[in-house]
Every structure is written in C-alpha cells, then in structure tokens.
Amino acid sequence: MVPDSRLIIALDVTDREEALQISRKIGGLVDAIKVNYPLILSCGLGIVPEIKKYANVIADFKVADIPNTNRLICEETFKAGADAIICQGFVGNDSVKACVDVAAQFGKEVYVVTEMSHPGAIDFIQKHAMDLVDVAIKNGASGIIAPATRPERLSEIKRRSKDLKILSPGVGAQGGDARTTLDAGADFIIVGRSIYNAKDPYQAAIDLIGQLRR
Ligand code: O7M
C-alpha cells in the first residue's frame, strides 16, 4: 500500500447495504477500507470482493492462533480477495511467520498489532510493544498497528520500527488527532466512527484528508 490520502476507513457497520453504500461513496477517496468482525460476522467473507470494487480491503481479523490455524485463516481471507490481513504478534514468531508465508504466496501484505489504542492496552500489551515491533521486522511483515491515542508512544514505536509502514487507529472517537498522528510517525490513520457515523461520511472523509495534507 502506497500512501496517497493516508486515510483508511474502519468499516465497522453491520448492515450490508450501509457498508456497500459507504464504500461506493468514499472508496475512491481513501487508501483502503478495513473490515473487521462486526461486518464479516454479519455479512460473511463474500462481502470482501464487493467492497474491493471500490478500494483495497484490509482484513482486520487480529489473527492470534497457532501457526496452522493462522495459515488456514489467511488462506481463506486472501482467497476472498483481501489485500492485507492484520495479525497479533503476541502469539509469537512462528504464528506471525505463518501469516507472512501465506501472504507471500498470494502477493499480499501482513500488518502486526503492537500497542493498541484503548486504555486497556496499558495493562499488558504496552510492556511488550517494542518486542512486538521486533517480531514484525524479524518475520518480514509489511507494517504494524500503533496507537494514535498516544503520540509519544507512536513516535517511540516509529523509531524502533525503521521502514515498516505504520497504520494508526484511534483518531476521532477515541480522542486522537489526525495531523498529530502523522507528525508522530504514522503513514496512515485508521478512522471508523467519525466517518461512518457522520451525517455526511463523504464530507467527513474529505475533511480528514484536508487535515492530513496540511
Ligand atoms: O475510529 P474508531 O474508534 O471508530 O475505530 C477504530 C478502528 O480501529 C476499529 O475498527 C478498531 O477495531 C481498530 N483498532 C483500534 O481501534 N485500536 C487498535 O489498537 C487497533 C485497531 C485495529 O485496527 O487493529 C488492527
């Protein structure tokens, strides 16, 4: 994924028509549409190729299993047409490698979660964020997920992550600021509610892109 708008929408709606309508409206504006369990559990993986008509699709399944199960999950996801998948790094090098190996077969990308954006990330995962960056580097992931809600942590993670792309959720509804997040080192911001709950999601996306280009 090469940055253009630097905006990824998190399409966490559960209604199929709403998901397709938003994708149709703003797919041409954003760098990717991220789908997560709310949409996939509601509509099935079959919605991936439909969304792909409008933008690249990132499957945010935070895959966190043994290598064999990770492999099976990644195969199904890439067969459905996703361009990238997100996995957890805390399950270890072998599990992440399984995802990267499948992605390589399909010519797709893997992103590894490091520190998450919510307050609970401080309980456990924050202590290991730098190790998780190392797991992503060691296993050849394309990039990582790091928090827009803690710009100072994002900067530290950026320093550690070298050339890995950074996708950063937490702008808007979780309190993060778009411009600050880029300045702290993110390549892309991931935004959900501030776009799909807006009265005019198209205009909300345009406004965010304007902030990112300032
Ligand atoms: O903008 P929001 O808060 O409505 O949505 C944020 C999206 O990013 C939503 O899909 C979350 O599941 C996801 N996300 C986080 O909010 N925090 C994280 O630490 C990680 C993710 C994520 O995308 O992980 C890959």
N-to-C span: 21 Å
How large is the radius of gyration?
A: 16 Å
SS-derived structural category: alpha/beta
Bound molecules: 6-(methoxycarbonyl)uridine 5'-(dihydrogen phosphate)
Largest sheet: 8 strands, parallel, barrel
How many beta strands in the DSSP annotation?
A: 8
Which residue ranges are poorly predicted, with pLDDT under 50 across at least 5 consecutive positions?
Answer: none
The percentage helix is 40-55%
- Strand composition percent: 15-25%
Mean model confidence by pLDDT: 97
The outline comes out as: globular
Query: How do the SSEs run, as a string of H and E?
Result: EHEHHEHEHEHEHEHEHH
Tell me the strand order in the biggest sheet. Answer: 1-2-3-4-5-6-7-8
How many helices in DSSP terms? 10
Task: Write the topology of this structure.
Layout: E1 7-10, H1 16-26, E2 32-36, H2 37-43, H3 47-52, E3 57-63, H4 67-79, E4 84-88, H5 93-106, E5 109-113, H6 129-138, E6 143-145, H7 151-161, E7 165-169, H8 178-183, E8 188-191, H9 193-196, H10 201-213
Parallel strand pairs: 1-2, 1-8, 2-3, 3-4, 4-5, 5-6, 6-7, 7-8
Helix pairs in contact: 4-5
The protein binds 6-(methoxycarbonyl)uridine 5'-(dihydrogen phosphate).
